[in-house]
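Why does residue order matter? Because the sequence determines the fold. Keep that principle in mind as you read this record.
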Amino acid sequence: MNINGYEQKVFGDVLISAANEMLEHAEGSRKLRMQTVEIEPIPSYAPSAIKALRRKLNLPQGFFGSVVGVSGKTVEAWEAGTRKPSGAAMRVLAELDTNPDYLNKILRITSTNASPTKREIARPAGLRRTCL
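Structure:
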């Protein structure tokens, strides 16, 4: 079947073709391409390093938690050493730490000329987080 210029194959046909290729490889008549992939080890951040990173970004715990994908209370627990970030959170922390533009990719910044209200938190460089 041809859709938008691309040939669409039935899954069963693809599966049978792949099985035939594996059989040919096992019999020695086909050489498969192999790649070695190394995964960067998950970094580790001590409580003091998490706090230092958050301060370097000039963010309060709640806002920092929103960026990382956790609550402000979780960030507080990380910084106190009572909880440890997950591997996924450690990777986000490392990206924030080593890539200054990563924070800007996460944030959706809208310009406003209005002065901050009680329901907004002022951020450096014109960043604001509206509290719901």
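The longest strand covers residues 120-122.
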